Amino acid sequence: VSAALRQGPAPAGQFDVAVVGGGAVGCAIARGLSTRSASCVLIEASADVGAGTSKANTAILHTGFDAKPGTIESGLVARGYGLLRDYAAEVGIPTADLGALMIAWSPEQREALIEVAAKARENGYEDTRPVDLEELYAREPNIGPGAEGALEIPGEGIVCPFTTTLAYATEAVGAGCELVLNAAVTAVRRSGDLHEIDTARGPVRARYLVNAAGLRSDEVDAMLGHSDFTVTARRGELIVFDKLARGLLNHVLLPVPTEKTKGVLVSPTIYGNVLLGPTADDIEDKTDRSTTAEGLASLMEAGKRIMPGLVDHEVTATYVGLRAATEHRDYQLETHPDQNYVCAGGIRSTGITGSLAIAEWVREALADGGLDLDSTPAKTDLRMPNIGEFGERPYQRGGRIVCFCERVTRGEIDSALHGPIPPADLDGLRRRTRTLMGRCQGFFCGAEVAELMEGRDGDR
Amino acid sequence: MAIDDGPIVIGGGPSGLAAAIGLRELGISPVTVIEREGEAGGIPRHSNHTGFGWKDFRKVMTGPRYAALYRDHAEAAGIEVLTETMVTDWEGPRGLKITEPRGRWDVQPPAIVLATGCRERPRSARLVPGSRPAGVMTTSTLQQLVHLRGQKVGRRAVIVGAEHVSFSAVATLAHGGASVAGLVTELPHHQSLPAFRAGAALRYRAPVWPRTKVSAIHGSERVESVELTDLDSESTRTVECDLVIFTADWIPDHELAVMAGCELDAGSRGPLIDQALRTTQPGVFAAGNLLHPAETADVCALDGRHVAPSVAAYLRGSGDWPASVRMTARAPLSWIAPNLLLATGHPPPRGRFLLRSTEFVRRARLRVRQGGRELWSGRVGRLVPGRSSYIPANWAGKVDPNAGPVTVAVK
């Protein structure tokens, strides 16, 4: 009998592997292990999977063209890109092949595009192509005046980060992985050849420990006696514009990156909106997901330059994502065979794209360290509900629409509420169905949806 | 008989139901109303206070009673009201894709009336920074929680806005057992009637804080406080509360109008319409708060009555879609409706044009001009943001169809 997801004591007994962190990376790792017959426990501090950095990002499916050549990140993003595209097609994660245009707004930036193209080749990405101004304005007629040139990166796309993480977690749980939510890790001890992990829901015992704790990955690493890196929350503020703005653009529009950040992009979202962001500010508090007046104003300013017509549209949502930045400009992937411990920390903006490759890397590290795994994973018949605008959605076949703005049917809400990993709150329901994600933000359906959420039975 | 043998009204609020009833009275059949909610009646269904029905029924009743009355009239008139039914796509001039519980189907009605109403801008659209805790909502959500579902919503609220609807939120909060810390407006005064203001101050002890904005919302799970900024001194202070109600700041629900290809007015963001309530798309009419966010329900219903003969004439006539002249409002006026002028001087709903201002203007004099020619000028009293003023329409016949756009401005 499976333990409760969100309350009660953590499951007793000993597991092969404990994965700490239920973001995209942790869930991908748990999936990869449990579908190869490892007994696995996935420990997450918050009330849901994918509720941290994985839910609040730009949702770009990166080719890895702009990674720092030679880094672990460069290789894993490139590999993860292909793995995730295949997996998305298999289980129905919404994606869209839009292609990106990196736009130079000054002669210096135009020069820099040459370096970007050279770096892409170093990263093994051969498909970039310079785009002249005539072509640029023909393909994106609504961008602002003053572009100096552009580089096309045809492989860049977008992906639904919510469905990605939930698919991994659902498959993991289906394969027997114990998911333990609301279980922040407070200490890790060695007890014989076992890790004894103290969580907010009591101790968990496992032979191997994988740290995928994102913003807290440095803290978990320290619990195992290491001090290789420090995570600083890099705040990214983002603005989501109304769907009526969607017709303004056709591609992911990238800025020319600087030392510190990839800069402010404008992109269609998988849900049919337009995204503007992110900012990049290092902040002290790893829990502070507040937007700021300055940040939002700077984004509107940038948006006005990139696409003047965009800022006349209504804003549907604003949010903050916190990336796990470290002092090293690379993923912090480290094996500690003497401790049966693998660290997968410091994964910042590219974690969704890289997730399956990171999981593969961790799996191989654990196998090298003596963990017995099946050579091929169990077949899955998982099929995720489509919440993206690039495929058919349930309302297009009929149904009682509850959330009008996002056209979410009662059937979709019921399925989410009774799914294998039901939402803990309205925000969780939003990530599973898009309910309340739209322009009215609950004006019409907020009360009914709240009641559906409250009234449901089952595990919370 | 298929439903697209007759006109389809999209939206079953006061304007949509009144339009449908008017069409039946003119002998049009069938007349179908498409309503996405489980019940027709629109916003008045959960506006559980009195004051509804004065201009259309000449008696005053509560919102729910008013909504029920329109439902009864629609039923008596033999109108098919399809609830839980939503237009989810628009193809070509009048091709509708409709989703309802049993499936999805296509219709191609000979005429369409858009009566999709308006909504309050939520917190996000107003770019209010801070965290995203629970307890932030619009008046509509508040009313539905309190009046339709009898839920407890919180203990102490800050209300953003100081219009009629904001004071109505004060009463709803009192009904739901919550107190009001204050009403915040960036304007120099509240925008409601003195009696509402005095009622809020005396009965509910709710102060109005003018020239103040909510500059941040704080709280992790639940709202804990808001930061208020005084716009004159730029000083800030923190007010503890567990609810923030965003009121007024209405925007038309214009998605279908956009999908239909209707041109919008930049000020109201509703579709352009002439005095007969024709949009810029032949065969597509519009009525209600989609055109003038937000008027009282009776004004919307009278729009519905006004559009019915226009639709009937179109259905029985040659299908002409007459040319018109654009009318725009100059700042501080934000919009005027109708905003397309027919040279015939056809009267607008209630024989008047509605307009709004972004600023308070005392004893305002307005002037309507076409090119260098004055069509009308006169006094309109005090302009109040969020409240309509009116100008008569007796001058509309003077419009020259070939003399370019018409402007209305404060003299």
Overview of this protein structure:
In chain A, 29% of the residues lie in helices and 24% in strands. In chain A, the strands form five sheets. In chain A, strands 1, 2, 9, 10, 11, 12, 19 and 20 form an eight-stranded mixed beta sheet that branches. In chain A, strands 13, 15, 16, 17 and 18 form a five-stranded antiparallel beta sheet that branches. In chain A, strand 11 and strand 12 form a beta hairpin. In chain A, helix 2 packs across helix 8. Chain B has a five-stranded parallel beta sheet, covered by helices on one side. Chain B has a five-stranded parallel beta sheet with strand order 9-16-10-11-12. In chain B, strands 21-19-26-23-24 form a five-stranded mixed beta sheet, with no helix packed on it. Helices cover 21% and strands 30% of the residues of chain B. Chain B contains eight helices and 26 strands. The longest helix of chain B is centred in the last third of the chain and has 20 residues. Chain B is α/β, with parallel strands linked by helices. At the A-B interface, helix 7, strand 18 and helix 11 of A face helix 4 and strand 13 of B.
Summarize the structure.
Helix content of chain A is about 30%, strand content about 25%. Chain A has about 450 residues and is an alpha+beta fold.
Termini distance of chain B? 55 Å
Radius of gyration of chain A: 22 Å
* Low-pLDDT windows of residues of chain B: none
Helix count, DSSP H or I runs of 4 or more residues of chain B: 8
Give the biggest sheet of chain A. Answer: 8 strands, mixed
In terms of structural class, how would the helical and strand content of chain A be classed? alpha+beta
Protein structure class of chain B: alpha/beta
How many DSSP-defined strands of chain B?
A: 26
- Total strand segments of chain A: 22
Helix segment tally of chain A: 11
The mean pLDDT of chain B is: 95
Sheet-strand content of chain A, in percent, reads: 15-25%
Query: Nearest-angstrom radius of gyration of chain B?
Result: 22 Å
Oligomer state equals: heterodimer
Q: Percentage of helical residues of chain B?
A: 10-25%
